[in-house]
Structures are given as structure tokens and as C-alpha cells.
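so my prof wants the structure for this chain in the C-alpha cells format not the other one, which i didnt know existed until like an hour ago. anyway here's the sequence
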Amino acid sequence: MTDGVFEMIGTAADYAYLKARMEDRQAVPTDISIKMSADEVSAQKYNVVAEVTLDPDSEPRTVRVHLVNSLYDYPASSDERYAYCAMFGAQQDVALEPGVPALVEYAFTFSSASWSAQDDIAIVAFVQKATTAKEISNAELMKWPFPPTDLPEDINGDGVVDVLDLIVLLAAWGTADPAADVNGDGIVNVLDLILVLSAWS
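here's what i got, hopefully its the right format
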């Protein structure tokens, strides 16, 4: 990333060093996974969600999660293009418990430069130790078009919560059908019905 400076910073030797450090870090196993999604809020505004999960056999710990909006091939008028950091979004310390997903959200409003080149938009989520040691534990890239956030109330998976989901839920009433068990308590009942009606499109 160039931080808005349209020239190479440092020497080729610096680049080789940074590339080697990145490859070394990529070879280190991680016990943190990141899943990303986004939902449209309004024109040029998307609520981005990073779901960060610590492996079930890991020790609890606090990490720092970052969300960054980047723009590839910027500026379009230049022969030399960069992955440009268009907006630094969320920076949040999160206490992770093994096997329990933690959510970090940020509403990005994309600039006109980003919006005019939607295919080049990407959101980067990365996780660091929430201490003075800032090595990255894991990172994830979400490119345009963004995948929507999963809706457990969308039982049939068509992207909306409506009468079709209600029909599926009622057909599974009293069973342990995991697709219709919206709240995950092991039984399809009135509690799941309330959640579906609350999320009605």
C-alpha cells in the first residue's frame, strides 16, 4: 500500500526484505479464522462484518481486529498502479473464547473514486496481538461483489425472509431439522417462528 504516495518507497532491496518477511509469516500456522460478509445499507454504503473465531483447542486471548478498504489498480491514470488504502475502518480489541465467533462490524461509505471502479474494491481484515507485539495472526481479503451476511432466518437460502421460509419452518415443526431450527436449540418451535417473523422482508 502506498498511503497516497504515487511512487515506490524504498529500494528493491527493501521490497525483497518485506516480501521475504511476508512469506515467512505466511508459513506460520494460525489458530484464528476469519469469515467476511457485507450488506448494503444505502447507495455506496455497506456494513462489513468480520467473524473472527479461535480454534476450539486454543487458549483464550485478546486480539486486535482491523478492517481496511483498499482499491486495486489506483490511480487509473497512471502506468504504475498500486493497492491503495482508501479508508482505514474499524480497529477493535476483541476477547476471543475458543470456538466462539466474535463479530467486528464497520459501515464503509465508498468514495466516488472507489465507486467508479467497483471491481477493484476489496476489504481486508487482519488480526494482531493486542499488545506491543504487532505480528499479524491472520488476514482475509473480501473482493467485490461482497457476499451477503448469512441469515439463519432465511431457511430456504433465497436471500429473503418471507412466506416460503415460513412454510419450510411449519413443515419441520417439532423436529430437530437444523435448517429450520433458527436459534439452534435442537427443536423447531415457536421461538424459531418469532425469529423468522422478526426478520420478515
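also thought this was worth mentioning. The helical segments are 12-26, 112-115, 163-171, 190-198.
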